[in-house]
Amino acid sequence: MGEGWFLVETSGSTPSVVMVGPRSKQWRPVSNMFRGSVYTTVLQLLDTVLNNLKQSQVLLDVGGPRLALAHPVLGPSRQVHAILMWIGDATETPPPEPPVWAFAWELADPISPQFVDDPQNRTMTDWLSGCARLSDIRRTVVDVHGAGIGDRFGGDWIRTDGTVERYAMRVVATFDGPCVLGVSVRLPETLAEADDELLPRVALRAVAAHTGTSSAVLHASSGRVLAWLTDARPAFAREILSGRAAAPPPVGTTPIDEAGELVVGFFETGS
Questions:
Q1: Per-residue pLDDT tens over the stretch 172-198
Q2: Which strands form 23-29's sheet, in the order they lie side by side?
Q3: In 41, 134, 156, 213, which residue has its Cα 20 to 30 A from 50's Cα atom?
Q4: What is the bridge-based pairing of β-strands 262-268 and 224-228?
């Protein structure tokens, strides 16, 4: 995220700063960043955006005229997940906004939660299949599978195209049951294909193409796919590929957590 912008998460009872520029802030209270009349004005600006669901701005007097801009980050059903803010010299043009998006996962299906109001009808399996690092997949799965109301998570997803998504998620109660509300910022730097973080995925892709196999992270008890680790996929039904239904038994598995609940399974691509 560009310097000068910061992201305020608003899904909880009080707003929390989760990112300042590209740096994570671990739900830092807004009161830790501002004091006195400036703090009061910033809170009023946040309330205005939450109530009106549109951009707002206000002038601050902090050692000279300063401009504070605030943009809502809207998720499904136009719910505000976060507010993107910039405070700078009132005579300067603000830098371009960083790419931010909001998402929500329904936890009615805790194995592979579904995106809320998603036109592509995607699941968490579909999203995690675009992650390059096995560690990102495992961390997200462990966080979400054990999630309870009020839990908060954060981290990075390195995508297979080399982009990096820095995210923050919170579990909230809704009329339809627990739900994960998330917000993600795409960092400006893109990793090269030969970057150390991407090499394991590149190697997996080469091995899969040579052997005619595919691999996936599986939930051992249910047999459902949590993320595909290779671009090639078996000729399974969409419900299996997206983690909604159990996959056929793999030809082999390797545990990747101490409890043995998460395994990497191997399939013949033509199966």
A1: 998 888 999 999 999 888 999 889 999
A2: 23-29, 16-20, 5-9, 80-89, 65-74, 56-61
A3: 156
A4: unpaired
